[in-house]
Amino acid sequence: LREFSLDVVVADDRDDALLGERAGTPHGADGNRSVRWTAVDPNDSELTLDVQYSVDGGGVWMDIAKGLKGVSETTWTIPGATARTARALVRVTARDPSGVSGSVKSPLPFGITNAAPTFNGDLNALLASRCLSCHNETTASGNLRADVYRRVGATGPLGMRDQSDEVVERTRVGAEQPMPPGGGLTAEERDLLQLWDWTGGVQ
Length: 203
Prior knowledge:
3 helices; 3-stranded antiparallel beta sheet; alpha+beta; elongated; 5-stranded antiparallel beta sheet
C-alpha cells in the first residue's frame, strides 16, 4: 500500500464489527451498514475515496459510493437482490490529487443472507447429494452422521451441529483432509454451510 495509511471496518447499528460473521438481512432497517475507514496522507492532501463491495471474495467489485471527500464513513444499503454469500468483502480506495492511490479491504469475509439457513430445510438437499454416501446411519465415516442434527443417544455418532465447525473447515478449498473426497463442494455449497454455522446452526 503506497503513501497512505488506510483501515476499514463494516459495522451494524449496534456498532459490532461484521468481519467473519453474518452481515444481516438486506431489507428494512437491518439492511443498512456503516462502512468506516481512516485514511491518512503524509502530505496532508485531500483524498478522494471510492467504496466498493464484493460477494465473491474479491473477484468482482461493485460500487457503494464514489468520489467521497472529507468523510470517514458512508452508509451501505445492501441490495435486496444480493445473492446469499459467505464471501462478502468491502474495499476502500484512496487517491491524492497527483493520482497516487492505495486501497484496503476488510481483512475477513463476512456473510449476507436474507434468512438463517436451516438444517431441515436449506441443508437437506446439499447433505443428501454430497454427504450421505459416507456419513449415514450405516457407515458414519469419521463418527459423523449428516442425516441427524445432534448425536442420537449417549454414544452414537455425532450429528451435523455437533461437528459443524470441523465440517466447514474440511470443506474449504485446500483443506488437508477435504470433504467430500475427490471433488469438494462448489463455492455456493460452501457458502450455505458457512452461513448455517455462522447463524447458529438452526435446525
